[in-house]
Design a protein that fits this description.
The protein is α+β, with helices and mostly antiparallel strands. The chain is built from four helices and seven strands, in the order ααβββββββαα. The structure holds zinc ion (ZN). The site of zinc ion (ZN) has 6 residues, from α3.
Length: about 200
């Protein structure tokens, strides 16, 4: 997911999260290109991660760097063309709050609240398009951390929206699947045009 849509669109100052965040614990990271919708890889269910090895750790580091650079608050491995069940996120917004980069291997939603929430979502694979999506307001998620430990946590607010959006990616689902078919078709056609223009080297005005 991108940073809050209001920031991403606005004429105001750049969003706070756009600032490069120091990640001293990771080295030799590199940005990976983000796939744009429509792309069959964004519609394919990702396979579970078997072993946590160096290449998976490298992928997670690269995804975090790519997410912060975008700037975004969440990114799923299929968005960089890797069809494995791995997501990264950091929904800390306040500038004076420490960043909280999270890496979730094989995440699973184990509980959802009856209460729902509405958030205007966007996606780094569908740039410049936003729509209100209704989802459970709170979820519990179980996952494996990069050190192999089992984790479980309850998420609320933006974190809940983000983790559900990113886990959707692992099942080949996009936020536009939660809105009307008419609107989805409209966005998809605009994205097809954007991709054609980019392929021909035309930048959008
Ligand atoms: Zn997304």
């Amino acid at each position: 997911m991108p940073v809050a849509s209001a920031d991403a669109r606005g004429d105001g100052p750049p969003p706070a999260v756009a600032k490069a965040r120091p990640l001293p614990y990771v080295q030799r990271m590199s940005l990976r290109p983000i796939l744009l919708h429509p792309d069959p890889r964004l519609r394919t269910a990702a396979r579970p991660v078997g072993a946590i090895d160096d290449s998976l750790r490298r992928l997670a580091d690269d995804m975090l760097e790519t997410m912060y650079d975008a700037p975004g608050i969440g990114l799923a491995a299929p968005q960089v063309g890797q069809l494995v069940r791995l997501i990264v996120m950091d929904c800390v917004k306040a500038e004076d709050e420490a960043p909280r980069p999270m890496v979730l291997v094989n995440p699973e939603i184990t509980w959802t609240s009856d209460e729902t929430g509405v958030y205007e979502e966007g996606c780094l694979s569908i740039p410049e398009h936003y729509a209100e999506v209704t989802r459970p307001a709170e979820v519990a998620v179980r996952w494996t951390a990069l050190d192999g430990s089992a984790q479980e946590e309850r998420f609320a607010g933006l974190w809940a929206t983000c983790v559900q959006h990113e886990i959707d990616h692992l099942d080949g689902r996009l936020f536009i699947d939660h809105i009307s078919a008419v609107r989805r078709g409209m966005i998809t056609r605009k994205m097809e045009k954007l991709k054609r223009d980019r392929a021909r080297g035309i930048e959008r005005a």
